[in-house]
Amino acid sequence: MAVSKTKKTKVVEQDVFTWKGVNRKGSKISGEISANTAALARQQLKSQGINPTSLKKKPKPLFGSAGKRIQNKDIAVATRQLATMLGAGVPLVQSVELIAKGNENPRMRLLLSEIGNGIQSGAPLNEVLRQHPEHFDDLYCDLVMAGEQSGALEGIYDRIATYKEKSEALKSKIKKAMTYPIAVLAIAGIVTVILLIFVVPQFEEIFSSFGAELPAFTRMIIAMSEGLQAHGPKIAAVGAVAVALFVKAHKKSKKLRDQVDAYLLKLPVFGLILNKAALARFSRTLATTFSAGVPLIEALDSAAGASGNAVYRKAIFNIKAEVSSGMQMNVAMRNTKLFPDMVTQMVQIGEESGAIDDMLNKVASVYEQEVDDAVDGLSALIEPMIMAVLGVVIGGLIIGMYLPIFQMGKIVN
Q: Taking the CB of residue 242, how many other CB atoms lie within 10 A of it?
């Protein structure tokens, strides 16, 4: 099965045009389409087999935006809705139209409307979806193409919907694990800076009238406060530039991205979660593509891209090369020394029984559950740790400021 690769382009804000026209069957249809210019909109309609008779630019709303940005979870929800309607026997075009009408996001309604128009013009669904690479990746489109070619689009869409739901749930768990501690530590940093810039100088003025030497801890805090007041803007600027340069280098340098991915897998606790998540994504993707009729070699390509980590991606490409030469997949997986014994054993059982997709689905379910448990355990572990850090940092600053007052009380007594 040939896999079509689509080059991803930068998504820009486009105008929306309302149109009326005639499709290849001679039926009058109408709808909305997004494009940079009216000429491009006409060209896009003609490529879908629609002869536009009327095309008008839709005015933008005076207040607010044209709708929320389309997110992956929106695509996952729409995919499940389409799978349900197809399973109930509703025709494809009608299913897409019904989902579009019931969607609250104007941008999502427009996207679904364009997909519906493309299908009405007689184009295969996978080709219509490939016109929107920012929302439907190669894996999604290849699975749809496999369903169309086999005449089992209903079953394929159910698998795609399950895959998207599991994928989004996994992303949500990982974000939960990362976001909470980062947010709390950021707040702690902001509170510390506020205390050093605005509160400590007030105490310093009081201490200047004591005429006695301040404790070393208090002097250290005052020095930090003075340094932050004198060089705070420079420190912030250098930090912002450093972050911007790192982000830019991370986008441009594949070597840097690979090094970061390898480092993240070695982090305590977080690395364990990322390893389990990569295994879950690999297993779920490979099971979904293989069960859809995609040849194993091409399915491994999709699994490599979906793994989400350069270390696993490289290992899966090595597996693909060895499988292409005739080696069993479970042996090739063992050779990478990356996959746990449980995974390779399940794959071996799947190869021997002819049910690799079932075994991989079970592996994916196991690791998705382990990620869920690990995130919950991490949250329970991090909360007291963060409270301890906050107590030490904030409490240390307060104690440092009150130490001279305590010493004066002892002297007076």
A: 10
Identical fold, 72-167 and 176-412: yes
Q: How many other CB atoms are there within 10 angstroms of residue 319's CB atom?
A: 26
**Residue 104 · residue 5 · CB < 8 Å:** no
**DSSP annotation string for 318-379:** HHHHHHHTT--HHHHHHHHT-S-HHHHHHHHHHHHHT-HHHHHHHHHHHHHHHHHHHHHHHH
Residue range 397-406, pLDDT digits in tens: 888 888 887 7
411: number of Cβ within 10 Å: 7
Point out which residues pair with 32 in neighbouring strands: 18
Rounded Cα distance between 331 and 323, Å, is 9
Under a CB-based contact definition with an 8 Å cutoff, are residues 367 and 276 in contact? yes
In the DSSP assignment, the letter for residue 15 is E
How far apart CA 104 and CA 59 sit, in angstroms, is 19
For tokens 């947010």, the residue is 183
- N-term to C-term CA, the chain: 90
Beta bridge partners of 21: 29, 52
pLDDT on residue 330: 93
**pLDDT tens-digit readout, 235-276:** 889 989 999 999 999 888 888 988 998 998 998 888 888 899
Residue type at 344? T
Which tokens belong to 63? 């207040």
**Is the pLDDT reported for residue 61 higher than 90?**
no
Domain limits of the chain? 15-57, 72-167, 176-412
Indicate the residue type of 296: L
Dig out the tokens for 343 from the structure: 């995974």
Distance set, CA 185 to CA 67, 176, 392, 394 (Å): 33, 15, 13, 12
- How does pLDDT run across 187-221, given as a tens digit for each residue? 888 888 888 888 888 887 777 776 667 888 888 88
Task: Give the chain's radius of gyration (CA, Å).
Answer: 29
As given in the structure block, the two tokens for residue 95 are 């299913």
SS3 51: strand
Q: What is the DSSP string of 89-118?
A: T--HHHHHHHHHHH-S-HHHHHHHHHHHHH
Question: Domain 176-412 carries which CATH code?
Answer: 1.20.81.30
Domain 72-167 has CATH 2.60.40.10: no
DSSP summary character for residue 52 = E
With a CB cutoff of 8 Å and minimum separation 6, the contacts of 285 are 139, 163, 299, 302, 303, 306, 307
